[in-house]
Design brief:
It is built from 1 helix and 5 strands; from the N terminus they run ββαβββ. The chain is mainly beta and 56 residues long.
């Protein structure tokens, strides 16, 4: 399976079976990505402290 955003392969998580994506691959060389769910746009951002923030 490949990531629909960046095309990188998803790695199956052996513990729960859900796809596992590398966020840095999704965001590429920046610190922010826009995600769309059912027509709603969300922003995924990596903070300076290396944490993730998802906002609408």
């Amino acid at each position: 399976m490949k990531c629909p955003l960046c095309g990188s392969p998803a790695k199956p998580d052996t513990q729960d079976g859900f796809p596992l994506y590398d966020v840095r691959a999704l965001i590429a060389e920046g610190i922010m990505a826009k995600l769309v769910l059912d027509g709603q746009v969300y922003t995924l951002r990596i903070t300076r402290a290396g944490k993730l923030i998802l906002t609408k």
